[in-house]
Known about the structure:
Layout: H1 3-20, H2 22-40, H3 45-75, H4 82-125
Helix pairs in contact: 2-3, 3-4
Amino acid sequence: MTFLGSFKAAMAGLGIVWREERNFRVQCIVGLLVFVAMFVLPLHVSERIALLMCIAAVLVLEILNSIVERFVDMVKPRLHAYARVIKDLAAAAVLLVSFVSVIIACIIFIPYLNTFVVQYSHEIFS
């Protein structure tokens, strides 16, 4: 397969996950909001990199979760009760990385937001 063919296949995969997975769409919207906030606030380069890695980790794990769910659904008649456990474990991975990403975002954004609020509250009430 050519590079262009591989790129088209990857874009088709993104289209599938966008159309069929509500959680992926929600995570993309949250990721976009974080991305915008990264450039509105005066973050350090290392903070921006950490946030980008968090966004990527959540989205990639959500895609992998979708792959696992589809695969388990495809072969489920030949599997036993672990089918539900496998799907739950994949979802737990997404939940865990999402939770840690929120913590990282709070650690990075809260000091900047506190400074912003204090600065503008002094201007408003002075």
